[in-house]
């Protein structure tokens, strides 16, 4: 999510989500922090969406909860995919403007021109933002596939034309900046899929991202060639492919699609399932199939499973767990490590250099990537002739000013993560997550003690309950006298406040568990008066 400001007015480009990692237990989604603009939402002229992936549109419903009438600007497919998400959040009839490559529209002081770019989802757009302060060119996510399935290439002629006019700040996709050369073309997957289909004499299951229309198209084409029926498995896959088909982005030959529940009535060698779950998501269709908990799909020896997607960093263990589960059930698993069944949707270093040489920007700010990717992208910009002082690396919350043709960091706003946990938005703090990690990794000990309200003497307990320990609870009998002695001493020294007595228990138990059991559990002491 990037916010541009000119003369007190704001333009937002993209508003996506992060997905939780292992150190975010219980978290469903991670949103951008809107605090920096929350009291200025009335100044937002529009929200421009470069394409329909979750990391670019996933947080839009949460922003619209704060101001419903923000105009949404994007391509036909992007806004259609967003529309289904908004309806799930009960947001009806948002203000929106459908744009295509070549269109030029204005919102307040921001004059926007849209440029076709190629990505792993159709209808992606770059956006040139003209203001009296200068022109910014934001590529969004892109690559330079010269033979894409939909024949819609990244419009380098438009990039060159904008470069001739003068691009003051170039925001470029950094995801593959460390990868030398050029990204492999999507069409190169087709022969590999054909060989997989030819070699399989039983059912085939293909798992990919639910938004990867081109990948699904290639699977459909291979299925038709080999006389197989196709079914979608997974709610998001069914929804997104239905939208893509209705809008003409996905071409489904008549008689090819069947309901997933009907596949059981067909010979296995005549069926293909296209499923979600290529990242090992616990509740996805493929994960449930691997765990034998899916309600109507079961793996039998000889089935073929194709993981036709990249391995997102942080998901390795989940994906390998699914691969192992499928292999244990007798399936042959084809994935990126053993076959060319996936290509990236992002420009590699060679393509980025082409863009720098074509656009010749005055300033460059790498975006969309971890810090190592942005640093690698910055090095490419310098290699292409952009002066070192005109290359800006900005992480979340950094403020960059473009003044008189020069971009430079001028400040930082408070900017953290906002965690979504069920119906709770923003209530889960880092402290809560730390508590959850301790509970998950170190266990839990509760200690209940009843003391006389007059004398402070322990009259019942300590009652100790432990969870998450291999040791029997009787193991904690050794510490009971120590707790009583510590409380007696504290009371004799004048400590009568229950909170302070609880802290005494926490210190005694924590020290004992650390020394004896080598653990650091969550300790919850309770002191009751009688």
TrEMBL record:
SMART domains: Lactamase_B (SM00849). Residues 1-193 form the Metallo-beta-lactamase domain. InterPro entries: Metallo-B-lactamas, RibonucZ/Hydroxyglut_hydro, RMMBL, RNase_J, RNase_J_2, RNase_J_b_CASP, RNase_J_bac, RNase_J_C. Signal peptide: none annotated. One of its GO terms (biological process) is RNA processing. The keyword rRNA-binding does not apply. One of its GO terms (molecular function) is 5'-3' RNA exonuclease activity. Keywords: Cytoplasm, Endonuclease, Exonuclease, Hydrolase, Metal-binding, Nuclease, RNA-binding, Zinc. It holds the Pfam family RNase_J_C. The keyword Nucleotide-binding does not apply. NCBIfam families: MG423. This is Metallo-beta-lactamase domain-containing protein. It comes from Rhynchospora breviuscula.
